[in-house]
Structure formats: structure tokens, C-alpha cells
Amino acid sequence: MSKKHEGGLVYSTDQGRMCPRCRHPQERCTCSREQRPLGDGVVRISRETKGRKGKGVTLISGIPLAEKELKAYTKELKVKCGTGGTLKDGIVEIQGDQRDILLPLLMQKGWVVKRSGG
């Protein structure tokens, strides 16, 4: 029985390190973006003011969605709160202290949601 090896180019003098699966340079690898680590399965919601000149934001981390779905869900949360926000490195930032509004919305999706921080 032979195993099918993905094999392929792993280094190029022009491009540097290459992904053996998609054969793109590692900076532009599409394989790792498709799979999102689920972490410990707990969605955490917190408030932070650090580095924002005293302005508070609500941070939501650990949402078990892929990149595209997470972007769409972020937009939905911003509309429900009536404020702005953004998505940075898989963490949703919503302007203001919106924890009381967001907590039931996240629980409706069936996720385990915990308040973290103060």
C-alpha cells in the first residue's frame, strides 16, 4: 500500500519558503487560512481601554467561524449595537461598552460565552 504524498517544492531561491500543499509562497499560503483554530470552544467578551485614549471598546474573541463568516457576523453585531467596530486578527472590536447587548446575541448562536476582565 502506498501513501499519496503531497510533496512538491518547499523552497525557491526566488520566492523563499513555499507551501507544499498549495505551492504558493508561505506569506500567500491559502491552506492555513481555510482552517481556523477553534481554541478552547469558549467565546470571551471583555472591555478594554488600553491604547485608545480612554475610549472603551468591547472585545469578542474565540468565535468559532471561518474568516468570511466572521466578517459577516461582525457586521451583523455592529448593526445590532448601532455602533462602529472592526475585525482584527480574529478578534471582534465593537465601539463602546456593549457587553450587555452582545452577551445574549452570542448565546443565541449556541456558544459558551464568558465575560472576562472587569
Topology:
Blueprint: E1 11-12, E2 16-17, H1 31-34, E3 42-48, E4 57-61, H2 67-81, E5 85-88, E6 91-95, H3 99-108, E7 112-115
Task: Tell me the series of helices and strands, N- to C-terminal.
Answer: EEHEEHEEHE
CATH architecture of the largest domain: 2-Layer Sandwich
Quote the average pLDDT. 82
How large is the radius of gyration? 19 Å
What number of domains?
2
CATH class of the largest domain: Alpha Beta
Which range best describes the helical content: under 10%, 10-25%, 25-40%, 40-55%, 55-70% or over 70%?
A: 10-25%
Beta-strand share of residues: 15-25%
Q: What does the overall shape look like?
A: elongated
Number of helices: 3
CATH superfamily of the largest domain: SUI1-like domain
CATH fold type of the largest domain: Translation Initiation Factor Eif1
Which stretches of 5+ consecutive residues score pLDDT under 50? 1-5
* Biggest sheet details: 5 strands, mixed
Helix/strand/pairing category: alpha+beta
Tally of DSSP β-strands: 7
Q: Tell me the distance between the termini.
A: 58 Å
Give a description of the structure.
Belongs to the SUI1 family. This is Translation initiation factor SUI1. Keywords: Initiation factor, Protein biosynthesis, Translation regulation. Residues 44-110 form the SUI1 domain. GO terms for molecular function: mRNA binding; translation initiation factor activity. The protein has 118 residues and is of the alpha+beta class. The protein has two domains: 8-35, no CATH class; 38-115, SUI1-like domain (Translation Initiation Factor Eif1, 2-Layer Sandwich). Helix content is 25%, strand content 25%. Strands 5-6-4-3-7 form a five-stranded mixed sheet, covered by helices on one side. A hairpin with a 3-residue loop joins strand 1 and strand 2. The chain is elongated. The model is unreliable at 1-5 (pLDDT under 50).
